[in-house]
Amino acid sequence: MPQHNHHHHQDLSSLLAFKASADPLGSALPTWSGPNPCSGPWLGLKCEQFDRVTNINLDSLSLTGPIAPLLQLKHLKLLSLQRNSLSGRLPPLSNLSNPSLRILSLSHNALDGPINVSLPNLLVLRLDRNRFSGGLDSVRVDRVLDFNVSENRLSGAILGRLSGFPPSSFFGNLALCGSPLPSCLSSSVNASASTSTTCTKTLAKLGVTSVLYIVAIDAMVITVVLAVILVVYACVKRQMKRKVMSRYSMMSKNRSEERDREVGGGLTAFEGGENLRIDCLLKASAEVLGKGTMGITYKAIIDEGGLAVAVKRLTTSRFSNGKAFDRCVRLIGRVRHEHIVSLRACYRNDGERLLVYDYMPNGSLQSLLHNNGYAMDWMRRKDILMGVAEGLEHIHASPSREPHVHGNIKPSNILIDGQGNARVSDWGLTLIAHNGCFDSPSQDSTMVVTEKAAGGTCGEAEAMAMVKIGMMCTKEAAGERPTMRQVVGMMSEVLGFAEEAA
């Protein structure tokens, strides 16, 4: 108990020091009072590990002054202070001073001075729209996935892993250079000044017409060179694609012969569906589970032992005929994971299309969220979110010539099995209906699930962090979105699953 009191006192002094400067009138943080910040309604705080403050989320509260007191909290994992009026310097951050910090979001403030952050395990670093100056030499964030220092006063070269981020992460710093921005000049200041003077004299002699003529010629040369590069690239890419497709065709044929079995009567069975018989399936008693744009789903009892399966009768007008449909369904039928509803068989005959899945007895996440008689605490919701993320990651990582995505992730397509685990269902059907297969996929996002499952009171800071991860998944530029593997990693850190696994 004395040790816990010491922790309370240690965190409390730092929090009250921040409050004194950030909210001198007491209007923004009126709930920050009492001897223990981990008990009572302290706005924006979350505690773990023997009542130590781990998450602070105080966005858009018109806070002022320095942030240094908050960074004295040794167990802090998440600090978000966006859209305030905070000023002063960001103290040096390292594994010695802030070993647990994973998310640091300080956008839209008035912070200044150099950026000195050496946190190999940091996942999010957003310092855009401040007044930071100096270079990025002291920024070492090997695992960061979301990085933005745009609209500051930074200068010098962008080096190392930071050069892999898009230009939007650095815009607004006129003195920054290097990939992904224009390259840096290696000449000295005197040489640059001398060159500038010489160029000015030369331009004066040539006149406007001559200059325009030279610029036009340069532009033509550059255009021709780029055109040649694009043609060569297209040819090489086409040849490589043909080789890959040829190799895939052989592999696909072999795997089809090994894994899939034409049972007869238009029924194709996948792993776990070898004993299904089409006559039993068509004669089975059935009840409607739900209707959607893809078709109607039934619960069917197909033998005397009471084996239940879910049968989706597809809306035939939405799906193409022939080999394209069969090929896409075979790809779906080969994917197996503990958080994905398994496709056991497909029946196609005389315009009829039936997909046979494992039956999930506990309904969908959609029904649970809207069932007032069923209580879902925050831990239960976290388990579901992680299950969905792991299922999507497995879909994305499944080997195939074409990239796999779900295409329609939402609470009604997340089912709960007999053990209460989340299972992703109906994956790929929307893309098959629209494109014939996975030809034009877009990155899946857990944003819909996050917003629906986050809840109001418990886990507020974790819920806010999850929304931010979801926002990263919905960035307009596909190259700026994290992969599902990266999303699972961030979620594990935010929701505490990484520590439990360790």
Automatic annotation (TrEMBL):
Domain Protein kinase: 283-502
Subcellular location: Cell membrane
GO molecular function, one term: ATP binding
Keyword Repeat: yes
Annotated positions binding ATP: 312
Pfam families associated with the record: LRRNT_2, Pkinase
GO CC, any one term: plasma membrane
Topology in membrane: Single-pass membrane protein
Keyword DNA repair annotated: no
Listed name of the protein: Leucine-rich repeat receptor-like protein kinase
Organism: Acorus calamus
